[in-house]
Amino acid sequence: MITLDSAETDESPLRRPPPSSIRGRLAATILGFGTLAIVTCMLAPLVGTTPISLARALDPSIPFDQNVDAQIFFVARLPRVLAGALVGSALAAAGVVFQAMLRNPLATPFTLGVSAGASLGAMLVIIFGGALALGPFSTVPAASFAGAAAATAVVYWLATRQGHAISTSVLLLAGVTLNSFLSAIIMFVQYLADFAQVFRAARWIMGDLDIGGYDTLIASLPLVIVAFALFALLPSSLNLLSVGRDAAAARGVDVPRAQRLAFFSASLATSAAVSLAGPIGFIGIVVPHLVRLLVGVDHRIVLPASALFGAAFLVACDLLSRTVLAPVEIPVGIVTAMIGGPFFLWLLVRKS
Amino acid sequence: MVTRAQKLTAFVVVAILAFLFAAPLAQSRNSGSAPRRIVSLVPAITEMLFAIGAGPQVVAVSSYDEFPAEVKALPKVGALLDPDTERILALRPDLVVVYGSQSELHAQLDRAGLRAFSYRHGGIATTLNTIREVGVATGHRAESDALVSSLQARLDAVRERVKGRPQPRTLLVFERQPGTLREVYASGGVGFLHEMLEIAGGKNVFAEVERESVQPSIETLLARAPDVILEVRAAGLIEKTTAADRDAWSVLSSIPAVRNRRVLLLAGDYLVVPGPRLATATEAFARALHPDAFK
Fold it and tell me: Which CATH superfamily is domain A36-351 in?
């Protein structure tokens, strides 16, 4: 971590490069990472455990309910890849924002209790909610989103008790404590449940992108779009905030407003991602640091680059999760951690 | 390659278990008089005890026990993960039935000088052998032999009924998130559910997977294209199984079972307990898969 901090001061974001050069670097970065993301998302649906013919999948003369290739492509693979891209970019971008806002390289989208709140919501429905299953829609995503929103509200309330501005130290402590507290409730709830439910609950926590349709994807999409629209307002103030709030305030940043915006947009992105696919770990910490090692620390570049790289990374990890041990699947959260962890450590050691 | 690794792991696990549990089992079989105060922490064994006439000797059961009705009046002393050792000891049992993974409890019972009967789920053969062992251990040898013979005869009768009929390729689902196709758990090619399905004249689409359960992706479900989808649910959940829940399958209309409306739901805890009711469960499977054979 010391290495990371000193790396940041070496290339202080306060020493802004001239606008023309940042525009050029931004264009080059978006082109590079964008190409990676698009190529990954286009190749991923073509690969799978079952060989399919794309020509047959797209042939309109075969009725859809008899076209296995089309169903594998459109019902099994495409929603999965799209969900991976959405969740990967949301978690990676939220990670960047939380790390800058909390000025802590160890922050992840799950540091402030959002994922624990989401998990508790999901657990309650999985374990007690059998009777509540209303209509054709599963209540799990809705409940986990509600849990995440509740946790966000509680943490925000705690961190703003002493004034109108967010205290980042209180935010961190409150978030970490809420995480442990909610985890204890989760364990208690699981302890009351029977085996099948506990197993399903444990499986939910490992993350799963096999959503088998577009309903939940369409439900999460507007939330992620709003979060990304808010992210677009953030990069310059994040650059200054990551140096310190006084420095940021001295340079004309409305610190409380910038912090609120960062906190709520990143929490929204995280909640949407977790309600769609469960708390898939490691993306929110590994991708931002990887991207910083590659492109430097300017958030105007790091934020879009992380979103694009996060999408490519999660889609690639999910591809491994569904093919390596087929027909048995490895939960995608295990793959992201097993690939992301060692790769990140290797980069870290090589860089220093 | 993976299968080989799994085989090896399974072999090692079985070898270790055999080593760990063979000795106490042998001991419990050989020791003198029939137990009068039995505590059973395994619902499948509780059913066996009552089915062979050892019910009156049972003084406490696990918190998951619900069958037969007599167990409802008995004290509950925890279960697989949370056995209440103090209460078990306080009941002064002379035989405690534990699950194979409860090694800590087993050690405590050994230290207290109590007989333990250790058991692990397996295939149908395991269940039938266990019924015999339970009979020997509790002094109901004749009844347990008779029960095993009758179960074998009923399974043979099912085999005979469906013999020569085309075997539908069947997906046997025992768990999924209600109303969706997420977290589907299906029977692999090992274990009593798989064996019951094959006796009932179905061909398991995951027969080659050497595991008890598989969590297939939507893609795998589409690719395996089962002729029949048989969903089994423990009782108590079935009231909540609505038409909407079954409709979750309709998005996968290229699966023959979905197209031809052969998604079958069976409910009842007897379907998922590897005990004396497994013949009844096998008969239910066969009726669902081959309704014509039972007309």
Answer: ABC transporter involved in vitamin B12 uptake, BtuC (1.10.3470.10)
Taking CB atoms and an 8 Å limit, are A126 and B177 in contact across chains? Answer: yes
Question: pLDDT tens digits for B125-144?
Answer: 999 999 999 999 999 999 99
- Kindly indicate the confidence band of residue B241, based on its pLDDT and cuts at 50, 70 and 90: low
- The ipTM, to two decimals, is 0.81
Q: Residue A130: list chain B partners with CB under 8 A.
A: 178, 237, 240
Answer whether residue A163 shows pLDDT above 80.
Answer: no
User: Of the candidates B80, B206, B219, which has its C-beta nearest A77's C-beta?
Assistant: B219
Residue of chain B whose Cα is closest to the Cα of A131:
B240
Q: CA–CA separation, B255 vs A51, rounded Å?
A: 17
Which chain B residue's Cα is nearest to A68?
B254
Q: Searching chain B, which residue's CA lies closest to the CA of residue A73?
A: B219
Q: Give the pLDDT score at A20.
A: 65
User: Which percentage of chain B shows pLDDT scores above 70?
Assistant: 86
- pLDDT tens-digit profile of B139-174? 999 999 999 999 999 999 999 999 999 999 999 999
| Better pLDDT: B11 or B49 | B49
> Residue B191 has what pLDDT?
94
| Res. B17: pLDDT tops 70 | no
Q: Alpha-carbon torsion A229, A233, A237, A239, what sign?
A: positive
Alpha-carbon gap: B254 to the closest alpha carbon of chain A (Å): 5
Nearest CA in chain A to B248: A136
For A105, other C-beta atoms within 10 Å of its C-beta total 18
Contacts of residue B178 in chain A, CB cutoff 8 Å? 130, 133, 138
Q: Is the pLDDT of residue B24 over 60?
A: no
Residue A120 pLDDT: 93
pTM of the model: 0.82
The DSSP line for chain B is: -HHHHHHHHHHHHHHHHHHHHHHHHHHHHHSSSPPSSEEE--HHHHHHHHHTT-GGGEEEE-TT---SGGGGGS-B---SS---HHHHHHT--SEEEEETT-HHHHHHHHHTT--EEEE----HHHHHHHHHHHHHHHT-HHHHHHHHHHHHHHHHHHHHHHTTS---EEEEEEE--TTSSSS-EEE-SSSHHHHHHHHTT-EETTTTS-SSEE---HHHHHHH--SEEEEEE-TTSGGG--HHHHHGGGG-TTSHHHHTT-EEEEE-GGGT--STTHHHHHHHHHHHH-GGGG-
Supply A242's token pair: 């990551």
* Domain positions in chain A: 36-351
- Chain B residues in contact with A199 (beta carbon < 8 A): 175
**Alpha-carbon gap: B119 to the closest alpha carbon of chain A (Å):** 18
Mean pLDDT of chain B: 87
> HEC states along B178-195?
CCCCCCCEEECCCCHHHH
